[in-house]
Design goal:
Elements (H helix, E strand, L loop, with lengths): L3 E6 L4 H9 L6 E6 L3 H9 L7 H6 L3 E4 L6 H8 L8 E4 L3 H5 L9 E7 L11 H4 L12 E7 L5 H11 L6 E3 L2 H32 L4 H19 L9 H14 L10 H12 L6
Parallel strand pairs: 1-2, 1-3, 3-4, 4-5, 6-7
Antiparallel strand pairs: 5-6
Helix pairs in contact: 8-9
């Protein structure tokens, strides 16, 4: 018999669909699915799953997995967590709402935050499918980060086991704090890395505007991006050439703001999370 009961809120969404695809293969979990959106409800019924009202699903649960967007986390947790039994574990799949305090908290519940690292750029994968897996699920190599937001240590091991099952296959679960997770996302991964990716795409477009054929510009950009990342992250031992180092210095001075590291200051991390959760309040 399954030993742990798991309610998935938002089970018909993108993340919820991945969760319910992973968990039924693991007999230690009994799954209760809840969904409100019409598209999500249709997805569940296509899979032969009849969703429960959220209060019924949560009332039975040892774990409540909140597969909902962070912008709706306050509303979702206020709606469902009052129905959770004392001692249940609420699992958030993104750190933004937790870091901003935008989560309904009960003293008699436990809270864990986890997020996937996604398959790394450099790493061997056994199949073509695994090599094309950018989010995780087929790739042999993926880590997760996980934080105990509220609750005793004895709930953490069970929560980690469930998080590993949600994002399986998982190689390593890195335990960090919620605040540290916010430094990773949004600050490192989105504010910096995703912005840099958009900048590279925009640079390609400028080359096309200058007359370079798009196919040539794309091939050149993607090949050189891979080499540059391999060098700076130590995947290969080759250094940049002296001329390339001059170009890097030149570009850093003209493209990158000199005070860019300010985005890691706590007030800046808080500011971007608040705008992500409440974009309508942007000043």
């Amino acid at each position: 018999m399954p030993s742990e009961r798991v309610a998935v809120i938002g089970a018909g969404g993108k993340m919820g669909s991945r969760i319910i695809a992973n968990l039924p293969h693991r007999g230690e979990y009994e799954l209760f699915c809840s969904e409100q959106g019409e598209t999500g409800l249709a997805r569940l019924r296509e899979r032969g799953i009849e969703p429960l009202p959220s209060e019924q699903a949560v009332a039975r649960a040892d774990f409540v997995v909140l597969a909902v967007p962070d912008a709706g986390m306050r509303v979702a947790t206020e709606a469902v967590l009052p129905h959770a039994p004392a001692g249940a574990v609420a699992i958030l799949l993104d750190p933004a709402a937790a870091a901003a305090g935008d989560v309904y908290l009960r003293d008699d519940l436990n809270y864990v935050v986890c997020h996937p690292c996604h398959p790394p750029l450099f790493g061997e994968q056994p199949t073509d499918e695994a090599r094309r897996d950018f989010f995780g699920g087929s790739a042999a190599l993926q880590d997760i980060v996980i934080a105990l937001m509220q609750g005793p240590e004895d709930v953490f091991a069970k929560a980690e086991a469930l998080c590993r099952a949600i994002f399986a296959p998982v190689k390593t679960a890195h335990r960090i704090s919620v605040a540290q997770m916010a430094f990773l996302e949004p600050t490192m991964a989105e504010v910096v890395a995703a912005s840099a990716a958009v900048l590279m795409r925009d640079a390609l477009e400028e080359a096309v505007k200058a007359g370079v054929p798009r196919e040539a510009a794309t091939a050149f950009m993607l090949g050189h991006v891979q080499i540059a990342l391999a060098i700076v992250f130590g995947a290969i031992s080759s250094p940049f050439s002296d001329a390339a180092n001059i170009a890097i210095r030149w570009g850093t001075e003209r493209v990158v703001r000199s005070d860019w590291r300010r985005v890691f200051e706590p007030d800046q991390v808080t500011a971007v999370i608040k705008e992500m959760l409440h974009p309508e309040q942007r000043i």
